[in-house]
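step=predict obj=Rhomboid family intramembrane serine protease n=306
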Amino acid sequence: MDRQHGSEHGSEREPEHRSEHVPAVTCYRHPDRETGIRCTRCDRLICPDCMISASVGYQCPQCVRGGSGTGHKPGANRPRTLAGGAVAGDTWLVTKVLLGINLAVFVAVLAVGRPLTDELLLFGRATTEAYGPLEGVAEGQWYRLLTSAFAHQEFWHVGMNMLALWILGPQLEAALGRGRYLALYLLSAVGGSVLAYVVSDPQQASLGASGAIYGLFGAMAVLVRRLRYDMRPILILLAVNLIFTFTVASISWQAHVGGLVVGAVIAYAMVHAPRERRALVQWGACGAVLALEVVALMVRTAVLTG
């Protein structure tokens, strides 16, 4: 969760009944069997007898054999994630790097103390000392939108966020691929910071990776729905976290909500992009989200600086 700093400045679905006007949803190898499960690589409908478990979802026998009958161009049969990213041998790599950065910054904050914390915190416009110069995002220090998302002060704070990253991260990294997963994480982190900057008191400082973590929550909900798994576990977990978000006074709900919305939007574009223009839609969505974040920053800055 994102804490507000206390300083002054700061499952398989049951097949639907179909009428004569609705095309059959049947397994491509067994036309007499209705199904709602699709191969995560070629999107063919597959029945339980044809489902082969993969790192994310299920694949059809032809994709597992590396056959060429998917209708793609030569070379397109290389193993791909659900979102079209390259399949990596280590689906924990980016998650481990993010964990390492967060923990390294936490140790540095413990060692250096307030001087470093003051440089990393997110606040819109405040003074470093009682009569010092104005500092903050409004003064051009946009880096705070990201550095604050890697900074923590309490053990329980960094522990809870890193536990969530450890649980959610590898699953999303395997489904999206490294580059797409990293873009999701960073844009969610910035999205949470931007909403906090736009809505919060500019002198109220905050820090924590919760914007990014809630982005992973939103992305996981989208992924579970795309794979047609049981939505209840992720929805219950998300509901419990949102209850804490809006009932604990020291939590920056703005960062949580901002990250959640950005993560869900980007994940939807990642896993629902049409196969023919997949990369264009996916990276276009990331660019559009980033552009909206920049516009919000500029408008809020103009208001604060008058």
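step=describe
Residues 7-23, 67-76 have pLDDT under 50 and may be disordered.
step=end
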